[in-house]
Amino acid sequence: MFSNCASKKYENISYLDKAVSEKTEKEPLPTLNIFSPKKLKKNLKKFDSKNEKLPVLIFVHGGNWNSGDKETYNFFGRNFAKKGIVTVVVGYTLSPKANYDDMAKQVATAIKWTKNNIENYNGNPEKIFLTGHSAGGHLIALSTMNPKYDVKDNTVSGLILNDAAGLDMYNYLQKAPPTSNSNYDTTWTKDPKTWKKASPIYYIDEQTPLIMLYLGKKTYESIKISNRDFLDSLHKVQPNVEPILLNKKHVPMMIQYFFPWSNRYDEIIKFIKEN
Q1: Pairing, β 210-216 against β 244-246
Q2: What is d(CA 111, CA 109) in angstroms, rounded to the nearest whole number?
Q3: Do the beta carbons of residue 132 and residue 140 sit within 8 Å?
Q4: Predicted model pTM
């Protein structure tokens, strides 16, 4: 455990066992980091918490499903912890050592682990929110919205999608079939039926957690299209969701969180307080 004046960091906590994925059991199992605010009573006042526990935010990083590392995002965990949110930063196995299904299973397991254990870190298991950038946005959406992954209804209080990729891989891969480029043939396979199973857009229903959505005006065209279509479908069950459009490219949509004074922190904390 490491600490500074405002938060404590608990490193490399195991959330999986070898039975989770036969494909990845020979690889080092991914872990998660937890960032917990130090001054509990002071932060409880910010959220008017009735059970003496703080809200929880789980973050899943992006990287095109084949790159990225949870350690890169220590700043994200520290900044939210300083603002009174218990923050869980999840690592997962990347392609080609895992496919999208393996990754989603791991993220779902991290959510369940958090539900069962976060009280030990002053987190409220009844107030768990998820956020992810790019591929991470896809994984948090799929793991919570597809019943296959068995994240029970009401486990997650809300999803914050940050320039999420992959919301409709079925539509995207029909136009650009997967090849070995970026390990897409491993991540998605070459089976269109699998592409559809991998796409969160096809699981939108009345049980979908409340969604907050960020989109970069200068992001990739494929992300703009899939987010637009996702919103069109989401509006059938959550008609009041309005995307927050920012004049940024894809990577800066994540880099902005490096600065603790970013308006994103206030917006997300407001969403957490209201839900």
Answers
A1: parallel
A2: 5
A3: yes
A4: 0.94
